[in-house]
Amino acid sequence: MKYMRNPFSTTLTFRHLFLSSPSQTTSQIASLQLNRIQNQTSPRSPEQPRRYASYKSARPAEQNQFIDERIRAKFVQIVNENNKLGPPENIVDVLRSIERPTYFLQQVSPSINGQPPICKIVNRVTAKEREKARAKAAHAAKASLKQVELNWAIDAHDLSHRLKQLKSFLLKGRKVEIYMKRKKGKRAPTTEEIKHLMDNVAEAVESVGAAQVKPSFGEPGKQVIWVVEKKSG
């Protein structure tokens, strides 16, 4: 199948590409890696209780390869809930010092330039709750995706009804997959019918302030797929 040129403005696409900022977690870890040699930290005394953190991007232990004994390093550095990096510690001692039924050790950054990997002590319950929240959000996003199917030789009445439905979905903030295709067993559409349908769909999408969020896919006259969504703001 052939890729088509996007009939809508590409401003939104370039804005996402060049102006989007990296995640906060990535920035924090990068900062730790940059300053880990410059910042001197004092060893934790045996009497000092270990502070347990609930790392916000942690996943349950069974879904993470680099946790507990699966961390392939003899020494690690622990970052606490305030993103303060501790001195290198023997991983065996670290694992002995935490309550294993409640917490697990997770690697959040690999070893760089001979320095031990950075790890965080994660609350199992909190990690599972966040994983459930992510799954729920993903399910909700999938459920909000609507589909509108149009055939190339659609009559004026049906086209008006489908475009009204399309605009209604977009105004409600839904993402919509538009399928323009040839009806099975029917004649091939004419060039005028193809142009008429695509022009009308593009006009309907733009009229409600929406635009494509993925490149157009397909071949006019056979099947073309547009994924559109109302622009934020």
TrEMBL record:
GO-annotated molecular function: ribosome binding; translation initiation factor activity
> Domain Translation initiation factor 3 N-terminal, which positions?
67-137
- Family that this chain belongs to: Belongs to the IF-3 family.
What's the protein here called?
A: Translation initiation factor IF3
Q: State where composition is biased (Polar residues).
A: 36-45
Q: Where is this region: Disordered?
A: 36-61
Record has Protein biosynthesis as a keyword: yes
What cellular component terms from Gene Ontology apply here? Answer: mitochondrion
Q: Name one GO biological process term.
A: mitochondrial translational initiation
In its keyword annotation, does this UniProt entry include Translocase? Answer: no
Question: Which keywords fit this entry according to its UniProt record?
Answer: Initiation factor, Protein biosynthesis
Q: Which residues form the Translation initiation factor 3 C-terminal domain?
A: 144-230
The organism named in the record is Aspergillus chevalieri (Eurotium chevalieri)
**A single Pfam family, by name?**
IF3_C
